[in-house]
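My main concern about presentation is that the manuscript never shows what a single data entry looks like. In essence, backbone conformation is discretised, so a fold becomes a row of integers matching the chain in length. An entry of this sort, consisting of the sequence and the corresponding backbone structure tokens, reads as follows:
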Amino acid sequence: MATAKTSTAITLPRIDIKLMEVHVVGDSPLIVHAWSQKAKRQMLDKQMKRATGAKEAKDPIADFSASLYRLPDGGYGFPSVAFKTAAVTAITSVAGMTKVAARQAFHILGEDVDVEGAFEGTKARQNLVRLISDEPSMREDLVRVGMGTADLRYRGEFADWAAKLLIRFNANVLSEEQILNIVNVAGFAVGVGEWRPERDGSYGMFRVATEDDLARLEGAA
């Protein structure tokens, strides 16, 4: 005689989603290096087996300009995912969470910007956190690329910078106090941008803004 199947109801805990704003202030200059249209097209041409001509002459000013993440109103930004990645690394270091759990616990929201793709007619959407800063300066760096070949790179640098991070998080997993601590650790130990602490550098470091920092930022606005 067949036995009747029984079903068990599964009750999932309600997700407690909250938003908080966290202002961060740069403790060291931020070096930016966005993918340029030129670099993306060269990559696509190689993958599509297209014939390429002679190597173009280096244009330092064009390279510098292409390294910047621009917002539609003329302001500057930086990928929100970079701040999230730094915070995820910090969580796994100080809270013992796995990277999967850390990625699922919060998101950093910025402004969506459409960027022209390498293939004609395509676009890619980037989410950028707006930078609070003066105009960037152009820096020159000697770098090593494939097989130790030396090359000069021209990129943007923001000497004094800050940003407002809008963080959407699951309050069942993280508290506001924990998020502030995680962001502080991320800014000190991981950083964002080129030559950050995570990559044996000292650039792109930041901290959670103090009351004095907020007053200074409001005065500069």
Remarks:
- Helices lie at 37-47, 60-66, 80-94, 99-105, 176-190, 211-220.
- The chain has a mean pLDDT of 90.
- The first strand starts at residue 17 and ends at 26.
